[in-house]
Amino acid sequence: xxxxxxxxxxxxxxxxxxxxxxxxxxxxxxxxxxxxxxxxxxxxxxxxxxxxxxxxxxxxxxxxxxxxxxxxxxxxxxxxxxxxxxxxxxxxxxxxxxxxxxxxxxxxxxxxxxxxxxxxxxxxxxxxxxxxxxxxxxxxxxxxxxxxxxxxxxxxxxxxxxxxxxxxxxxxxxxxxxxxxxxxxxxxxxxxxxxxxxxxxxxxxxxxxxxxxxxxxxxxxxxxxxxxxxxxxxxxxxxxxxxxxxxxxxxxxxxxxxxxxxxxxxxxxxxxxxxxxxxxxxxxxxxxxxxxxxxxxxxxxxxxxxxxxxxxxxxxxxxxxxxxxxxxxxxxxxxxxxxxxxxxxxxxxxxxxxxxxxxxxxxxxxxxxxxxxxxxxxxxxxxxxxxxx
Length: 389
Prior knowledge:
Layout: E1 8-12, H1 21-35, E2 39-47, E3 74-79, H2 83-96, E4 100-105, H3 111-124, E5 130-135, H4 147-155, E6 160-163, H5 166-175, E7 181-183, H6 199-205, E8 212-217, H7 226-239, E9 243-248, H8 255-264, E10 271-274, H9 284-289, E11 292-295, H10 304-311, E12 316-319, E13 334-337, H11 342-355, H12 361-369, H13 377-385
Parallel strand pairs: 1-2, 1-4, 2-3, 4-5, 5-6, 6-7, 8-9, 8-11, 9-10, 11-12, 12-13
Helix pairs in contact: 2-3, 3-4, 7-8, 7-11
């Protein structure tokens, strides 16, 4: 029986032309739901962050290649700071008469907009529309004073939740014990692997001739622990002089701080710092050149960078924060360390570099990730929408 027949799902969250993790989640989620046979639309933002609050160069994706492009199914209606736009979005959604609305939640800055729209839908549609929040972060990485309060007040309008790790499931469950929580995982982000490079051609393209390449990838923010990784590399390179630390991502912190650490430890010649947001079509060589991807985070929930590494079948070293360790098979797809102390990171990174030609990491990642991603989304949506039958 096709349980999706005639049913409509509306996603509410950032979508292209916005860039970043939430837009990527929307792309994979849209594709999955569409492939399952549902009629799906996305209500996105006309304004995401006011420029005064945005630390990067641009909020928009300037890539030439867009994963699973579906511009005709995206309505940019929500201005995060304009209540009139929230009413406009509510009216549009109600007029579409969806069976369910899935709100993407990742930080309390959007609490006023999302909670208002969800509340109106809940109260003015006679509960005919099922409200679901896909919770990426229950509490933001910065864990500001009022984060928990705003999150709890906003998510109370949900009929159910979707989360992508056991860690987040437990956080939701502490506040919403009586509401269904459906668990899945982030998708494997294989959309960046365009098969244009081998390891050798990638290293040649990047002008890297080192035997060992350690990659830090993604937006540079304080909680991600890049400072600790640079300090770790400075000690590790004494044992492995034929190594390169490849740091790739736009800095949302003080880039001078990291440049100073690199200089202080005298590893300028062995460190490549690419301080910019990488377009989709240019991601591949960085991961193809890498022998290990390191996530030396001080805190976290789940990690899109982990899923990018898996998309390129590169093993990882990650700290045991949030739900990241849930998706790492020890000594097969990577290594989990208790925290990002140098004494923990060095042996873990060394182990992968020393065994990269002995342990079939790529094969192990391929086998493990076969059952990850939104593969259970069909069952989840059936549960969410069956109340309408």
